[in-house]
Design a protein that fits this description.
This protein is mainly β. Helix content is about 10%, strand content about 40%. It contains 6 helices and 52 strands. The chain has a 23-stranded parallel β-sheet that branches. Helix 1 packs antiparallel against helix 4. It is elongated. The N and C termini lie far apart (about 115 Å). The relative contact order is 0.04.
Length: about 650
């Protein structure tokens, strides 16, 4: 037979372990007659029919020396051309090299595990493990080191105290939840713990998915208590983050130039100086376009000195759907979360509830520099701007459009929020808001909505267009600054009646069957975020009609130059509301007509009956309705 020697080139020969049955045995099946089957003619004692005889060797030497192809008789024979014998064709160089690789990998005696699932367990070993399910590694980092891009690192239940570097890698890292999606106990019991001393993941320039883990007690003096990244793509699914801390920004994660996708995850009791949970953005030097999508996730009881639980900036699109932001606290601005410098923002079917901004606008949400966006089917309730000094920035208990934001609010319920100014929504500094099919009711300020423009010298107008909505106190509850205006107020489609929530004391803001908001929205839709949730409610049970006459304190007080006077009528009455100076001289008659029972309000612009401005000082305002008479004081500042 012809003989030749082949040069063995192993680099790039094969990406995974060579399989005996499908890659080696088939070579001899195709090229050898009666040279390796039981009962046939044997050549030099070579018998590949079974594991035992394959490794047994012959008088001429070991048929296979696992890990050493050069001293293996099989390779020597095929390389020299004497095997296969007789008239059988010689093997090609690729086949000979494949046999050599198989031998060097251990042949059948000690096969090398080659993934693509790399298993990690507290009971595994980095020194003797190979990453297989039967012989896992002990540390996540070792599994990442063994994995090739595109592989998956599988983490078994247990606690892992590692600081993991997966920078510049393309991996999936997850728990056994990946294979048992109905067993959430796996998430709770697969824990990465930073021991309040170190970060959990470095994901710089990485394309990584994190699935089904709890990440807790991560710590960083600067950015990203649990995760830090940059210029990558991060997907998080079915994870829990708790008690993570960063000294500067991003209690859970700080990302710059990363695309971010989060779903079905929980963020609880994390903290940072800036953005208590997530700080994700895109600085101009990354030259990337990023998109942020967060859905079906819960952000609860996270605390930061400023910028809310989430601070998203510089994104192309930001989508937040079916999420809950509850009981988060921000020292300054955006108690729930902040989005700014974003081309398009979408918030849909979210619960933004009981968040607090200790100072600065937006108890629930603060946004600015938004080219366009929509908030739909969402509830804002119980959010608070805490500071009571009534200074310039403390506005928008529910939502604050701080500057240069264009936004539509559709089918939302905004109720029981409070702020020194504009209890529900503040629209400021060249911002433009359209409100449709929404309920704005019971927010803790006479001004439910405020339109302001007094921040920068170059301010242009801010505008509001509202229709098919239920607004408490009607147009009188909208404060309008000098440079701004109401672009549209469709009186014929607007309501000013109790929405008849089913059980607001228990945060049930579905509508009673007889709610005036049922079917009265645009194109016959319902107003608000929710539909019918209970049977008809008697009006008196829900104080739709006041139970007694009341004259409320004007708001704001002191004021300059506009204030609102509110009063309650338990029955239809002839009403007179008049302003007097301290000498008892009549200054301005505000109301002098018959009115239906209900919650009423009227604004005074500090002018007299002739339309001339009045001087600063203390004034009295008096109501007479039937036999009810009451007088209160107010202070006009100049």
């Amino acid at each position: 037979m012809r003989k030749y020697i082949s040069l063995l080139l192993f680099i790039g020969l094969a990406w995974g372990q060579v399989d005996y049955q499908t890659q080696i045995q088939t070579i001899f099946n195709a090229n050898c007659t009666s040279c390796h089957i039981n009962g046939g003619a044997y050549q030099q004692g070579l018998d590949l029919s079974s594991y035992d005889s394959l490794m047994a060797g012959s008088n001429n030497g070991a048929v296979i020396v696992p890990g050493d192809h050069a001293n293996s008789l099989l390779w020597q024979k095929v390389n020299s051309g004497t095997m296969p014998p007789g008239n059988n064709p010689d093997l090609g160089a690729g086949e000979i090299n494949l046999i050599a690789q198989w031998i060097d990998e251990g042949a059948l005696e000690n096969p090398v595990y080659a993934g693509p699932l790399w298993n990690v367990s507290n009971s595994g070993s980095d020194s003797t493990g190979d990453g297989s399910a039967d012989n896992p590694f002990a540390t996540i980092q070792y599994g990442i080191g063994a994995a090739s891009d595109g592989d998956t690192v599988v983490i078994y239940e247990g606690v892992y105290y590692e600081e993991i570097d997966a920078g510049n890698r393309e991996l999936t890292i997850g728990s056994l939840f990946m294979f048992d999606n109905n067993n959430e106990s796996i998430i709770e019991n697969t824990i990465l713990d930073g021991e309040n001393s170190h970060r959990l993941y470095n994901l710089d320039n990485a394309q990584v998915s994190l699935i089904g883990m709890t990440m807790q007690n991560g710590y960083a003096e600067n950015w990203g208590g649990a995760i830090i990244g940059g210029s990558g793509d991060l997907t998080i699914r079915n994870c829990r983050f708790t008690e993570n801390y960063a000294g500067i920004s991003g209690g859970v994660m700080d990302l710059n130039g990363d695309n971010l996708i989060i779903s079905n995850s929980v963020f609880y009791n994390n903290s940072s100086a800036r953005a208590s949970v997530i700080n994700v953005g895109n600085s101009t030097n990354t030259e990337r376009t990023i998109n942020v999508s967060i859905k079906e996730s819960v952000f609860r009881a996270n605390t930061g000195e400023r910028r809310g639980a989430i601070n998203v900036w510089g994104s192309d699109t930001t989508l937040i759907n079916n999420c809950e932001f509850i009981e988060n606290i921000s020292g300054r601005y955006g108690g729930g979360f902040i989005v700014h410098d974003t081309k398009y923002l979408e918030i849909d079917s979210c619960i933004i509830k009981d968040n607090k901004s200790l100072r600065g606008g937006g108890g629930g949400l603060n946004i600015w520099s938004i080219d366009g966006g929509i908030i739909s089917n969402s509830i804002f309730s119980g959010n608070i701007v805490m500071d009571t000094t009534e200074t310039d920035t403390f506005r928008g208990g529910g939502i604050h459009l701080w500057a240069d934001a264009t936004l539509t609010i559709r089918n939302c319920t905004i109720t029981n929020n409070s702020a020194p100014l504009a209890g529900a929504i503040a629209i400021k500094h060249n911002s433009h808001c359209t409100i449709v099919n929404s309920i704005i009711w019971g927010n803790g300020s006479t001004n439910q909505i405020g339109i302001y423009d007094d921040l920068f010298d170059e301010d242009t107008t801010s505008t509001l267009n509202i229709s098919f909505s239920n607004l408490q106190y009607g147009i009188d509850s909208i404060f309008v600054d000098e440079m701004s205006y109401i672009d549209g107020y469709d009186e014929s489609s607007m309501l000013n009646s109790s929405p008849l929530f089913c059980n607001p004391d228990s945060s049930d803001y579905t509508l009673a069957e007889n709610s005036p908001c049922i079917g009265t929205g645009e194109n016959g839709a319902n107003m608000g975020a929710f539909g019918i949730g209970c049977e008809a409610i008697l009006s008196i049970d829900k104080d739709v009609i006041p139970l007694q006459y009341v004259l409320h304190q004007n708001y704001p007080n002191p004021f300059n130059p506009i204030t609102t006077l509110r009063y309650d009528l338990p029955e239809n009455s002839y009403v007179n509301v008049t302003v007097y100076d301290m000498l008892g001289r009549e200054i301005r008659t505000l109301v002098n007509t018959t009115q239906d029972a209900g919650f009423k309000s009227v604004r005074w612009d500090a002018t007299n009956n002739q339309g001339n401005p009045v001087s600063a000082g203390v004034y009295l305002y008096k109501i007479q309705a039937g036999e009810f008479v009451q007088t209160k004081k107010m202070v006009l500042l100049k």
